[in-house]
Task: structure prediction
Amino acid sequence: TPVLFSGMQPSGDSLHLGNYLGALVNWVALQERYDAYYCVVDLHAITVAQDPAALRESARRTAAQYIAAGIDPERSTLFVQSHVPAHAELAWVLSTITGFGEASRMTQFKDKSAKQGTDATTVGLFTYPVLMAADILLYDTALVPVGDDQRQHLELTRDLAGRFNSRFGETFRVPEAYIPEVTARIYDLQDPTSKMSKSAASDAGLVNLLDEPKRTAKKIRSAVTDTEREIRFDRAAKPGISNLLDIHSAVSGKSIADLEAEYAGRGYGDLKVELAELVVERVEPIRARTLELMADPAELDRLLAVGADKADAVARETLAKVYDAVGFIRRR
Ligand code: TYM
Result:
């Protein structure tokens, strides 16, 4: 069975609809056909300012949301990145074959560091994509389901795998990205030309999986649209309506063309009210199940320990091959 690997950062109070529709929905579907590893990437989460108590809470809550959304911990390997030391160890080795210029071209780094300023930007944020490459390459991964914003990091991962193989001998499988068509980029409801993101200035444009249903419905009903009346998909001219149609299509399973026909001659209010209902219907069971899982942290920790043991065994073996390949002598 081919291997699939993906992860999310434990940051903020909840995963949002972009994380869910862009990635998590595909994780759930693909776990049937792949030997899947789903990681809570806490090493990545400390590359920006963070609060230790909040991080602890968020790591468990992120794992709980994976399970609540449909990841089966019996079938898939669910674990926390910091529990498997090989991630940080391989990242070091990969950092020595990553060009400084190459890493400097990563647009996520450029955007985030530009926002924070040079003094607040850490070296860890700079090497973030190298750690992500290590995550993926440790497991002989064939497929990586992510949203569109991770495309460039996946390209770097593929480049590093190829470069290592040609320099030190065939060691890594070169993985493929799996990026959905309609939901690769879900936009902020209040600012529909920016992607929905945990680091948004305001929470009003974010649909959080753990928001109260009333709040979710209100956020969708208050989504920014435009001054026309026509419900049609046009990303450039009508970013707000196009985003709502994308979300509708993802949740209802109807095509954009069918939705345009269904809403022909109707007002924006109808679209928003119906979409709010659909989204609440989909998200509310995830919220309820997450809260149940969070009520038993010992059981969550047990599940995560099982996953860590399994991941650790695989990762150690890959790391040993890498250490041999670069010329480290073995410890007796
Ligand atoms: P993170 O936590 O920022 O995002 C988690 C996943 O959600 C997707 N995503 C979106 N998809 C559609 N629309 C949006 N508005 C939106 N916002 C986020 C992201 O593309 C991602 O798939 N670097 C990764 C975490 C990571 C990882 C890995 C992923 C670390 N190591 C190895 C895959 C494989 C990230 O940005 O997570």
Summary: The first helix runs from residue 17 to 30. The beta strands are 3-8, 35-40, 77-80, 141-145, 176-178. The pocket of tryptophanyl-5'AMP is lined by residues 5-9, 18-19, 22-23, 41, 44, 132, 135-136, 144, 146-147, 149-150, 184-186, 195-197 (CB under 6 Å).
